[in-house]
User: What shape does this take?
Amino acid sequence: MRLHRLTLRNVKGVRARTVELPDSGVVVLEGPNEIGKTTLLEAFDALLAYKSSSRAADVRALQPVDRDEAPEVEAEFTVGGTRVRYAKRWLRQPSTTLHVLGARPQQLTGDRAQQHVDALLDTHLDRTLFDALRYAQAGDGSVAPLVSSTVLTAALDAAAGARQHAEGSEAILERVDAEYRLYFTATGRPTGDYRAAMARQTQAQDDVAEAHRRVEEGSELLLRQRRARGWVARRQAELDEARRELALAERAAVAVREVTARHEAALEALAQAQELRAGAVRALAQRERLVSDERTLTSSLEVARRSRSADTEQADQLRAALLAAEEDAARAARAVEDAEAVEELARADAGHLADVRQLAESESLLRRAGQLVEEVRHARQQLPAQPVPRDVARRVRRLQDRHDVLVTQHTATTPALAVESLGADVHVRVADGSDPVVVVAGTAGRIGVSHDTTVEVPGGVRIRVLLPEEALGRVSQIETLRDQLQRELEELGAGSVEEVDALADDTESAHGALRDAVRDAEAVLRPFGSALAAQAASGVLPAVLQERVEQVRRQVRQHADARSAEGPLPTDESEARAVVESAAVVLRAARAEQRRTGSVFATSREAVTALTRRLDQAEGRIEADSARLGTLQAQLAATRGEASDAELRERLTAHEERSLAAGEAVRAAALAVAAADVDEVLTTLSRSRARAEVAVRTRETALAELNALNGQVEMAAGEGRQELYDLAVAVLDDAERELQAIDRRARAARHLRTTLTEHREAAHRLYVQPYTRAVEELGRSVYGSTFGVTVDEDLSLSARTLDGVTVPYAELSGGAKEQLGILARLAVARLVDPEHGCPVVIDDALGYSDPQRLRRMGEVLGSAAGRAGEVQVILLTCTPERYAAIPDLRTVRLTA
Amino acid sequence: MVRFLHTADWQIGMTRRYLTAEAQARFSAARVDVVHRIGRLARQQDCAFVLVCGDVFEHDQLTPQTVRRTLEALRTVEVPVYLLPGNHDHLGPMSVWSTPLMAEELPDHVHVLDRPGVHAVAPGVELVAVPWHGKHPQSDLVAPVLADIDVPPAGTVRVLAAHGPTDLLDADGRHRAAIPVAPLREALSAGRLHYVALGDRHSRTEVGDPAIWYAGAPEPTAWREERPGDVLVVEVDTSPEAEARTQVRVTPHRVATWSFLALDRRVDSESDLDALDSELGALPDKDRTVVRLGLRGTLGLAQHARLEELLGRHEDLLGALDRPTRHNDVVLAGDDDIVDLGLGGFLATAVEDIRAMAGGVPGDRSAPAAGTTEEVELEGRPGGPDGAAVRGVAFTPGEPDDAVSAQDALTLLYRLARGGSR
Assistant: This one.
């Protein structure tokens, strides 16, 4: 494609502008910022991309912001050898106009125009190339992977000398890839229907295995059932054999049992005979016992009757003796009563005389007690009103002694004043409270200075004698003691210490007299109790003493009054005692007599009682024996009526004979049993029976097993395992059929994709070389001969080498990237067929390049465009001096 | 004179590996449905009873559902039915005939001939039954039964019911229990029998005597069967007027709804493909037709793609379309088709590689590896009542690239390069 002219009206900030472009070589569109350089490209893009009816964002963006005008773009360009003028107006009264220029001019509008251009572009414009050769403002300079550019790849095919590329290859690859992705994930794992079919196959395989296992299980059951049947049959045979043996043993046992039964019958007959014989023996013995009893009873009854008549006589005698003894006893009792009365009176008299004596003694004691009590009372009255205990008197005496000692000491240590009056009276005053001493004129005196002393001669002199401190303390002590002594004496009511001593003496003697009187009183009354003694000691005569005397006196008077009727009293106590003694002797004799007669009476009465009891017993016995005898005799008569004694004896004889015969029969049967070998037969029988039972049980067990198996087999048969297996196999077959079909398609897709991908990559590797050569050729004019590039299979630049140093593209500086980007585009533009090539458009680039590089880039740009002359290079810039180095440069200045 | 319906080999419960689940279900249902038709035919033809000579069931371990559906179908038959246990449904252990379900639910008018010998089934009619008691009898079962019978009372029709191959059809003597035909003919001549009803062979067959017949299976079970799908209405007249050897009249009646069709065709050109397409398209009752297709020939890539397409189309319609490997040999020829696509560049070299790997292998590889075993008509299929045979090697998906995947890849490329879709 070649762009010849571009006209914008009302596009963004551009009101109206037409730019004419030369067909080839380098043209610089120069203008300040914001003038709308980039807008030119955007407008051209919109013209190709959007219908006039479009309201796409890109289209709306074309509208001027400050005016309500419809944007219009017109471009004249050549594509696929056809030169056209193509114009569009959007948004308001949209329109599309196409003028086909050249030999067969044509004008189209609307959709037809659009379709015509679209067809031209689809056929002749390599959009990949068109986009790739544009170097956009602010881009990083990298070139879009160019491998999908058919124009470029065709060029590279030619350059590589082989036809690696065919039109539509990429589209086919995409379809192959889409087919592949129906069956595989990106990482090559089965997916979708393919995976589902595999899962179904696996599931079906598992189901078949399970169904197969169940069928096998059924076969196994059948095998076990067959074995169990054989087992049951063998056990049945064993059982039959055991039963045959048992039948034989039972027949032998029957024969043996008959012999045994005969023996048992003989034994039973013998027992019966012996029992009958025993009965006869018993009947005869009973008869004999009856006869003997009757005889014995008759004779003993006779003896008893005789004994009874003898006892009756003796009883009469004993009763007479009993009466006599009774009279003797009564008499003795009366004698005792008399003696007791006499003895009692004698004792009363003796008591009375003792009372008389006691009365006299009591009266005397009472009197003595009265005197002693009086003495006590008197002694008590003699006790001083203020008793002075001896210790108190001693304390007072000690006070006096201490006082006197101190005074003596004081006097000895104090000086004395010798005063001699020579004319005037001298007054000496001792400050001890005593009256002043006056030594009258011409006298002398000696005065002890026991206290501070003033010696004064009135009108003459006063002399004060002062005691030392120690002497003053003693004086105070002496005064204190004196006061204390004085208080003690006052309290005791005494005038002096001597008086106190006398008072203490008096007190002591009065207390001694009281103690003596009390001791005496207590001594007299102690026999009557300590209470009475204490009472007397306190000076009171106890009244009880008087009462006692009175009581004894009343007794004496009463006895004297009562005795007067009984005769004279004994004279004294000793006589009375003698009378008592003699009365006691008489009483003892009477009591002895009474005891003797009582004993005789008791003996006699016991004898009568015993005999009477014996008589009663004898009578009862005789009566009972008589009745018994009667019964016996009746019994005897009755049994004899049944069978006489002789008949009984005959019967016994007959039974004894029969017993003997039965015994013989038993012995014969026992011999037969011994001959039959019963034990052996019975042992065999029980052994056979046990064996048969075991055989039955064994067969039952086997049968039970078989039945269990039959049940299992029946159940298994009812489940339809074979059919279920067949169905499972059918499902598996179906699943595999499906899987095989999918697998064929999946493998085909995989095979195809793998192979195509490998070949495409190989082809791409071939493209790389010519492209690399083209870039390096251009680059070496800028960077020198060490310049090299690394090109990937998709034809993108991945690294630059300079002076032997290789730097990955991404790590290059912005300027270097820009330079590489422009070089790559120029290389592409040079490689492709000019007929199908596209303009190289570089928008505001090389801002980062140093002046030297800039110059060389300019030369390269110029040569790239100029040498071949077919490449259209359009540079947009606001700083045209960047491109000053480009030869044959044409500049179009854009102004507002 | 007595008229009855002779049939055999119902094979209820049979599965076929080449049937899809859907087709298998219909195939199984058809084996039960035919019983209804047999019942209606028996009534229409005024038959006194229906005699089934063995293999009522495919095997002896059937699901209760299958057994119940069969019994339900039998219940609709309005005449007495006599079922003879054959080799597939013998009276051995686990016999379907001795299950509680059978004991409880067998209709009153249906009788199992489970005892060898004479069964008086109606006044003047006797069946001489020869049931199978195991899968592998070691000798002819018919001979001892035959030895026990004498000439029946005058006016009594006597029919032998037996199952198994006859010595005439088992020339190589594979079967110890094969039934010798000569004694049967002798018995027929002697008047001890009047008709011999046989089962086991699924093709309707007269066996050396107009009174000895295999009825054949009422619904077909395999391709090699010659005349399956019929039942026989048999008329036996023993009245004195009837001539000694013309007293039996046998009339076949078609009752089948399914058919098995084996086609072997050459395909070398578009016109061959047209013909095949038409032939398959003209088949009646497609969904009940099981086709085994053998193709041989040489096809280009485009033709091969077309073949696959048309077979896929018919496969959707048919009961089954089986393409066993040994019956198929279609070779991919030339590279004209690929050349026509005008593929260039790396695509062309890639195609060269793929084609080299594809080599000259036959172009048709559709038969499953597991499906190489063909049914043996008399012995049933593998995994039958003898126990579950171990199944063939399981199919393994995702094998590495090989000639087969290469061929398919070429076909795929052809399709995709044309921008086509299936």
